[in-house]
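Escalated from tier 1: biliverdine IX alpha holo job.
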Amino acid sequence: MTDLSHPPFGTADLTNCERELIHLAGSIQPHGVLLVLAPESLDILQVSENVADLLGQLPGALLGRRLGDCQPVLGVAVRDLLARDPLHGPVPLRVRLGAADGTPDTVALFEGTLHRTETQGLVLELEPPAPSPTASGESLPVRVRSVIAQITAATSIDLLCETMARALRELIGYDRVMVYRFDPDGHGEIVAESREEALEPYLGLHYPASDIPQRARELYLRNRVRGLSDVRYTAVPLVPRQSPLTGSELDMSLAGLRSMSPLHLQYLQNMGVTATLVTSLVKGDGLWGLVACHHYSPRRLGYEMRAACELLSEVFSTRLAALDAEANAQAELLVRRLEQQLVDAVSATGEWHDGLFAVLRALLAPLDATGGALIYEGQTLTSGTVPSSDDLSRLAGWIAEHSEGQLFETSALARLDPVFARLTAGASGVLAIRLTTTRLDYLLWFRKEQVQRVRWAGDPRKAVLGDDPNHLSPRRSFAEWIEQVRGTARAWGSREIATGRMLQASLSDVIQQVQAVRVLIASRQLASVSRVVERAVGPMVILDDRGSVLLANQAFRSLIGPEAGPLDTVAAVSTQFADPERVVELLRKVRREQRPWMGEMAILSRGQPVPMAVRMDAVPAQEGGLLGTVLMLTDLRERREAEQVRRNLSRTLEEEGGSDGAEPDEFMGVLEAILANARLAATSISGSEAEGAQPHALRSVESLTRRAAELTRQMVTVARD
Ligand code: BLA
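Tier 2 regenerated the structure:
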């Protein structure tokens, strides 16, 4: 039975580790000390039990007293920091203190961070400086700058991950550096690795989502770099354990010294790992993956190096946003090209599916599918591995019956209905778009079952062990992952679904045009065909040869609102626009010249002007003359929002890039590299046509860039202190 409680830190087992309260660790790793201070008075509220190791005073001599009274130098350093920094997150400080052993005249340098908790006071963490990880002649900013340049130069996500793994290992010298990528179900895969040659490779290993509990993933979005210096440590408790301000456990979400979950420590020990450093890779609002660095002897990094790793992860995330936008733009280009081919095919033969048949194969790659099929008017055309024709039409019927909307998507077909169990091997994953509302016309893509596709990293069965946490390891979890993913395909990603939607919209646009023309050709059959246009996604108006309104569809009517009244004359339609005369005039011009007009106009949506891209097409009759006119509209509000966000981002880039002349050249060098990467990302994102996604991606680039600039500043300040 699964336990639904929230096990306190350190008491979780394999059945409930998903809910372990890891941020309430109540203890730290022993290589540093932690003090909790009252926000105003700086009274010492809590300390780690080992505080005397660095400060020479036992907990009893510190608790309840003002920091400045018992540690004057530290008191001044903390007050200084509070005076100059709003403390939005952990901020570094360096202090020289009398040696803990009380030897006169010896001073020791400590580095640390200070951060504010919501209700429990300030958390001060101190540690002795860490030895520099690699002996290189070049200064850290110069090396960081060079890594940023390499990240910016990466032209694909694979190359980006490889660059990150290699460059980070060169920088910090850990034995193994891996990039993990999460799939939409939360399962992970090691997609890049740089390691000491003698080590067994982990590249290509998959592991189940349960290896990193959801709660930990949420924490890793807030705290983007975590270090573990020696897996065999004995955790040092806080005294008192509860916060005197709230009576509850201290929230250690942002504490760098936080003790790690014992289950995870067991996992690492089973793997033979001694020290780790892990950073978060972010996409939009979510965790895209992690960089995990393993070392096989104790190791830790100082503040500057940790800041550098975090900064590089933010730069990575920015580059990721750019590459993602570029891939989207390519998918869009493909869809546009396809659209053009279809329009050409329609004008050549009057049929759009000829064009579609011709490009079906080209559509497999962008959706990363193993098979594809088109069902149109009872005919099927396929490419790659697909179910039989009978199964295909059965599937189309099932989808039409069981799914609402235009796009259907699953990664485990047989779980939806056991009748499809036979199709598991080749078609566990299905993405389908419906092309017409009146017939079962579908475009479908398939993905093979996942286990049929993985690169086996050794025999996973070899190490399948029981439920004992003492046996947790990536090899075992690989086997567990295999069990979990039986009958499923790799999940369709947001890009593939977006491409599917784009294709759907584009194809139904083309089909609509075809249908609209047919409506015009046979306006007497309006009743039967108009259903299609009526249900079309985009707002549309069809006028006949004399310029009377044949149809203003549902999307058009709901755009302008219910109070508009009947829309059966050109006058009634044109008054829905901010400039009715211009609409009438343009319609006349299009009819007269028989050339399309495209431009922008405001329409009144519930009385409010809304910017619209407008397209007016004259449809010539075969025997000469004019059949009528078609008016199609696209809402530009999202595009406008994107423009606004773009302007904000440019301002941020300008602000961050501004120098008051006081910064050292090295600092400006890193900052310039960060900004160059961000500008490129902004350009890629703006160049993509998926307006809906733009504001989000641009905002995320903005916050990643601000954070990277902030870290650069801190890295350099610490180096100077
Ligand atoms: C955390 N588990 C993690 C982390 C990683 C992994 C990378 C993040 C650690 C950090 O940010 O410092 C998983 N590490 C791996 C894997 C490899 C690796 C797969 O190197 C492969 C090479 N872990 C389990 C199981 C449970 C579990 C079965 O495998 C629970 C039943 C728990 N993992 C667990 C917990 C954490 C964790 C609780 C949070 C650790 C913490 O931050 O305190």
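The pocket of biliverdine IX alpha is lined by residues 14, 17, 20, 22, 202, 207, 210-213, 216, 220, 226, 260-261, 263-264, 267, 276, 278, 290, 292, 472, 474, 477 (CB under 6 Å).
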